[in-house]
Amino acid sequence: MQSFHGVYEIEAGNSKIFYIDGSEKILVDTGLKPLHTDVINYLQQNGYNFGEGGIELLKKGARSKIISFLKKNRFKVDSIICTHCHGDHVGNLAVLKEEFKVSVAAHSADIPFIEGIEKIKDPSFVPPELIKHFDIDPCKVDISLKDDEFFNEDVRIIHIEGHTKGSICLLYRDKVLIAGDTILGKNLLNPKMGPEDLNLPSEWSCMDYKKAIENLPKLLNYSFDTILPSHGVVIKKDGKRRLEQLIQKSIQK
Ligand SMILES: [Zn+2]
Ligand SMILES: [Zn+2]
């Protein structure tokens, strides 16, 4: 299992969960909950590439992957941080919070969505009869995060509003940027969603795409070398320079 300066990635199909093995043991995001057969059939009919073992994984949800990763490495969890309120990140939040008996942290602006007080707009690509299967199980959030604060001595919060209102990146020891969905890596299964090594977030997935792009340069105020996006391949080195190039390109357009 590969660690990036002390941060592990847990692959769960097309999205990732991260584990910070620092002064505190933190699970970042919780992946998709088990998908309903109707949803899997629909995705299959629409040519979605699940990759090897992907369908089984979607049926089971990301929870089993997380638990087996933790068991295998004898890792414990002190708390869970959510990068944002989307279902592929908070899908197993309620069950894992209960299972680990830990506190959950998220940016204040996404808390109402995670707690089920507000509902995010239904994704336009999902047919109406399947929408109900995308509902997330509400979960109480214990710690409200804000921009630029230190969660602990090694993790800093960077608020990048746009993908969702309260989307955050986590900066680990000025080395690793856990990017959530604020930027995307190269998507090997579905190249249309991430053709380059580093990509802007996809417009359809953002609550406010314009803000999501406008706020990206904020990340350049910080130091980091590795970028861990939730979707797509990791950028192991030179991440800041490559993000700078991506931002330059997006301004020229
Ligand atoms: Zn998202
Ligand atoms: Zn996502």
Walkthrough of the structure:
- By secondary structure, the chain is of the alpha/beta class.
- It has a single domain (3-252), classed as Metallo-beta-lactamase, Chain A, CATH 3.60.15.
- The protein contains 8 helices and 13 strands.
- The chain has helices at residues 37-45, 54-60, 63-73, 87-90, 93-100, 111-114, 209-214, 239-252; strands at 3-4, 7-12, 15-21, 25-28, 79-81, 103-107, 143-145, 155-159, 168-172, 176-180, 184-185, 198-199, 226-229.
- Strands 1-2-3-4-5-6-7 form a 7-stranded mixed sheet. A 4-stranded mixed sheet has the order 8-9-10-13, with no helix packed on it. A two-stranded antiparallel ribbon has the order 11-12.
- A hairpin with a 2-residue loop joins strand 2 (7-12) and strand 3 (15-21).
- The protein is globular.
- The termini are far apart.
- The model has no long low-confidence stretch (mean pLDDT 94).
- The structure holds zinc ion (2 copies).
- Residues 15, 86, 88-89, 181, 230-231 line the site of one zinc ion.
- Pfam families: Lactamase_B.
- InterPro entries: Metallo-B-lactamas, NDM-1-like, RibonucZ/Hydroxyglut_hydro.
